[in-house]
Each structure stands twice: as structure tokens, then as C-alpha cells.
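A reminder before we start the practical. When you read a complex entry, don't treat the lines as separate problems. The point of joint prediction is that each chain is placed relative to the others, so the output describes one connected object in space. Small molecules and nucleic acid strands, if listed, are placed in the same frame. In the example below there are two entries. Take a minute to note the order of the lines before looking further.
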Amino acid sequence: MSKILIVEDEQHQRELYAMELQEEGYQVDQASNGKEAVELVKNNKYDLVVLDIRMPEMDGIEALGKILSRDKKIPIIIYTAYSNYKSNFMTWTADAYITKSSNLGELKEKIAEILASRSK
Amino acid sequence: MNRFFSIKLSFSLLPEFLLISGLVVLYFYRYEAGGWFFPLTALAAGTYAIVRFFLSILTRARFYSRMQDVLSTINEFKKGKFSTASNSGQTGKGPFSSLMSELSVMGKHLENILSTQKTEISNLRELYHNIVLSISSFFIALDEKEEIIFANESFCKKFQYELEDIVGKKIDTIFIFLTSTIRESIKRVLQGHEAVVLEKTHLVSANKISIIADIKLTTMVVKGRTQVIFVIDDVTAICKKDFQINLISQVSESIQRDDEIDSVLHAILIGVTSGSGLGFNRAMLFLANPRDKALKGKMAVGPDTMEEAIKIWSSVSECGVDIYSQLKSYNENKEGGGKLIEKVQTSSFSLKDEANIFVRALNSQEHIHVYDAYNDERVSEEIRGFMEVREFVVTPLVSVNKSLGVIVADNRFNQTPIGYDNIELLSIFAFQAALLIESYNNLHMIKKEMGKIRDRQEAMVESEKLAAVGRIASHIAHEIRNPLVTMGGYARRIVQLARDVPKTGESIAKAATVVLKESERLEKTLSNVMDFSRASHFIMEFNNINEVISDTYELLKNLFQERRLKVDLKLDDGIPLVKSDFNQMKQVMLNLFQNAIDATPPEGTVTVATGANGDRITVSVKDSGLGMADDDIHRIFEPFYSTKVTGVGLGLSIVKKIITDHNGEVSVTSKKDGGSEFLINLPIPK
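Here is the predicted structure of the whole assembly.
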């Protein structure tokens, strides 16, 4: 069973993603900002991280760097309400950049796609 | 004086002394002599008396004669002859001699004084004569009928007249060109007015000698008759220098004042011909046109006839050196005619024709002075016919080793020989003119470049504005999108979960679907905003804009039907492909269609037309809506500006950004109640 870390400061959104992804059959951990996420990554092994950008204490861009410096191979999907960060080179190290939507279909497809390619 | 009296005394008392002494002697001897004493005494007395009488007569006669001498000497003095006294008074003795010698001394003194004065006067005369000779002023004297009664040598020499030929002739037959000011001045001095001074007046004699002169007019009464005295000073040379400096500065000024090169060139030609007596009679400008390989007549200044020339000169000399008033008066006096201008402007000489003297001057970059066109081999028949003058000069306009054209000038009307100084003036002037033309061209280029820079700057400001707008928009979108996706996400969840709820499940799902759809709609709007601000990464391909339009129309077909709008597609099948991003172009058309749909009331028509125009293709989207107010037209492409109640106000600014990114242009025209038309043009790739 793949283990996914969801990093999102908006509690309702975070819980929604967790529920939907658990229903898809994933094991899900939650972090409410970058700092928590970095801590969790330090102590746990995740197959994938879903990362928001704008968060208090430590934002997604900073967390992205810190997570990757610990584990270069961990797949990260940036999932944000900003659409224009896609052109920002700081986000290019992530495996995917998806603009948030009420329809989680795109996110779920991307997760499945990445995990499938990794398991090969 | 004592000596004079002693002499006189001894002389006059001598007879008395003799008589008394005789009587005394006789008295003592009367007794001895007896009876003869008395008669003897009487005889002696009578003799004495007679002697005395004659003596007195003698004395008087002598006195008168001496007196006469004195009187005649005085008379001589009266006549101014002092030398005679000195001669006659030399001889004789006595009081008269003294008097005469005194007179002679006096005469000598007077003679001396007189001769000194005579020398002084003659010296002065010589001095005045020398002064008159050494100044170059010309003198002429006229009688009351304005006929010449005298002219000095330098006048005759300057104007090449013999004195006897001009005496008795009227002044206006000597000077063919007398300004009204001179005529009036003659009348004024004749009426008793004091001296009149006319500065820098143009004089042209009947034998075509022209000068600029300071003229002083006075009157002199000789033998009860009034004479008008003209003192004429030739100031041509001084004027020329002043004039030249003035002229150049004025022409330089004109280049700053005028935007049009034509008026600058015209000012140059006016400069060459102006100053009546200073410049040339006619001046023509030819400019080299490298594209047509021809030397083309550009413009000309100059009279067509002698009468016209005099008319122009007389009005020009009233207004001095100012080119602008000269230009004005020139134009005022140039009635109809203008044959010269017409002739010059229709002329064109091939630059390859080396035999042409104009072309030769242009190529050699040196002036050519033709003294006798009819006997000069360098001058072709064509040019002889064109110039119709014996002497002319061709001066090239050279700027930084580049020949721009030539100025051709002559003195067709006053026939004055073209002097070295005139050519010098023309050369300097041509050089200045060339620089002016060159700097005008440079100025023109700079202006053009400045325009480009300004456009670029405006574009930069605009893109900066758009970038700022993008940052703000992205922030706002973020803030809205977050709660929106939460709401939408949960609504979707409700829809899914409601399926398992018996009875009410369906209606719950239906209600949640509404929430879901609405949040999805909002999300889409947000995406459009983000599309706008996102850095554009075009995929440039060769696309047919007609296809983009048809594609977009297919998408919106239903909407058109829903709104009961007619769509008229006038697509030109022949338009070339343009390099563009298909999706971006689709976005443009989508926005324009949407805009037209919103602007047009039901039953209206939206017309879309394409075509090619030169190196651009054009797309027009026209609606039959209400049109826009002027204010809206100016701001319609600004981000967040919307006339619609429900618009975000980004649609048209997206259109503008995309079209500008494609090196195209978009504009709008609108008539109140007549609908609006959006026009796009895009470059056709070479």
C-alpha cells in the first residue's frame, strides 16, 4: 500500500483529500505546513508528497527544497491555488504542478501515473 | 618829434628875421643916405612881401603834392594794395616823408597779414579738395525739375557716364530703379524739408549698374534757385558682409522654425536672390534623386520679366534683410506667372549624362562659372535653351563629401556680371544649405527613431502594467480559488454520498450538483484570469485564421442560436497562413465572439470577415449592437475595464496582449447605435 503525505494548511481541504485518497486505497498522512512536513519526511518513508505552496511558518517552495535535499527520489506533486507558479523555476524540481480544482480527478490520475512509473 | 618842430621853426621865422634886421640896419644908416632911404625901405618891404607870397604858394603846393601822395597811398590801401606805399614813401624829407614811411611800414604789416591769410586759405582749399577726392562719395545736383545739373567725377566713373551726356537729363532716366522713398524724399527737400538720409537703398542705373547706397539729400540755393544735392555712398560691400551673416543665421533659424524641408529650401533660394542688389536675379534648386537616377528641379525663385523684377526689388528693398518679409512680399508680387518655377519643377536631367553641366558640377563637387553660354562648349543646347542667359553659375550642394544637388544662379535681368564675391557668397551659402538639408534629414531620422523608442517605451510601460495586474490577479485568484475548491470538493462528495441515501438522496444530490456546477463555473473564470497573467509560451505554427474562426464558431454555435443572433462569415479563402499559436488565436476569437454576443440584442447580426492587405492579413468582427461611448473606446483594451454588468473586464485586454505578442495590431471603431467593429491585423511571414 502506497503511503502519501498531504501538506495543506486549509484543514477542510486537507481532510477532503485524505478521505478521497484513502478511498482510492492509499495510506495518507497529513501535515498543515512545510515545517511539519519536513519533520514527518525525516521520520517516515513516503511514496509521494502532495504539497501546497502558500502555507504559514514554512511555504511549499521552501519545504520542496528541504524534502528533496533529504530524499532526492521522492515524488512531489505541487497542488496549489496559484496557477502562475508553474512558470517559476523553483517549482520545476517537482514531478508535477497541478492547479487546485474542486474536481480531484486530475490529481488522482497524476498520483496513479507517478506511482505506476515508480513501481516499475 | 622835437627835431620836426625845430626844423619847422627855423625855416618859417627866417624872412621875419631878415626883415627886422634889415630895418634896424636901415634905421641907423638913414641920415647918411639922405632922401633914398624911404623908397628903398618900401622896395625892400615890397620885395619881402612878394617873396613871402611866392614862398607861401610854393610851400602850399608842396604840401598838397605830399598830401596827394598820402591820399593815394590810403586809396591803394582801400583797394587792398599795400605794396605801393612802401615804394613811394622811400624818398624825400620832412613831416610827409615821415608820414609816408609810417604808412609804408603799416602797409608792409598789412601785406604780411594778407599773404599769410592767402596761404592759409589756399592750404585749406587744397585740404578740402583732397578730402572730397579721397572719399568715394558720389555727388549729383538736380534742379527743381529733377534734371541733373552737375555730377562729380567719381559718380561718372562708377556709373560709366560722361558728364555732358547726363547733364540736363531727368534723374529717373539715369536710375531705372528709383524707390518710392527716394521720389518722396526729393519732393520733401524741395518743399523746404531739411536733409533726408536714406540708408541701404538699392540703386540701378540705366546701364544696369546696381549698388546699395546710403543717400543724403539736401538743398542748396545757388543764384536764387534751389538745387537738390545727392551725396551717395556706396555701401554694397559692407552690406554684403552683414547680409551674408544675417542670411545664414536666418536660414538656420528657419530650419528650427519649419518642419517642412520645402520651406527651408525656399528660404535658401530667397536668400540667394534676396537683398535686391546683393543677390542674384534668379536662383534654381535641383536635387539629386538617387532612386530615379535623376537631377530634378525642386524649386526656383526669380522674376519672369524685367518689369516684375523691378516691382519685386522695389518692394523688397523696403523691408530690408528679413527673409520672411521678403518671402511674403515676393509672393504678393508674384502675380500669376511663375513660369520659371513651372519650368524648373518639370525639369529632370539624367545623373548619367556627364555632358550636362549641372550633372558635371554635381559630380565634380566644384562650382562652374559660365561666362558665355552661347560660345561655351561645356553648355549643351538643352541647357542654353533652358537658361536663356549668357552668364550663369552652377554651385553644388556638398555635405560630408556627398553631393545633394546644385543651385544655379544668374543675373538675367540687370545683366550685372557675376563677380568673384557673388560666387563666394553662393558657395558659402550652398555649403550652409547642404548642411541644413543634411541636418534636416538627420533630424527627420532622429524624429523617426524617437517615435520608435517612444512606442517601445509605451509598450514596455504597458507590459509592466500588465505584469503588475497579473501579480494582483494571481493573488486574488488564489484567495478565491481556495474556498471555491473546498466548497466544490465537498459538494462533489455530497453528490456521491447522497446516492446511498434512500428517499431524499436524489434531491440532495441535485441540490449539491447546483453548488458544484456554480463553483466549477467560477473556477473556469478564474482560469481565464490566470491564462491572462501567465507568461505566454506560444507554440508558433503556420495557421489559417479562417480555421480558427470556424472552430470557434462551432464552439459557440449553440450560444448564437440561444440568443437568436445571425452570424455572417465572410471568410476570404485566399488569405495566406500566419505564424501563430492556434490556441491563443482561438482564445482571441472566443473573446471577440463573446464580446459581440454580449453587445448585440436578439435578432442582431455578427459579421466576421477576413482578408489580406499588403503584408498583413485582417480580421474584422462587427456587431449590430449599441456601440460604445468615446470614453469606452479609449479604455476598452485596459485590463479590468468592462462595460458589461457581468464581465471581469479581461477579455479584450487578453485579446490585445495575444495580438501584440504576435506582432499584430488590434483596434476598434464604434458608432453610437451603429455597433462596434474590432479590427485585427497580423503580419504575413516573408
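Discuss with your neighbour: The mean pLDDT of chain A is 88. What might explain this?
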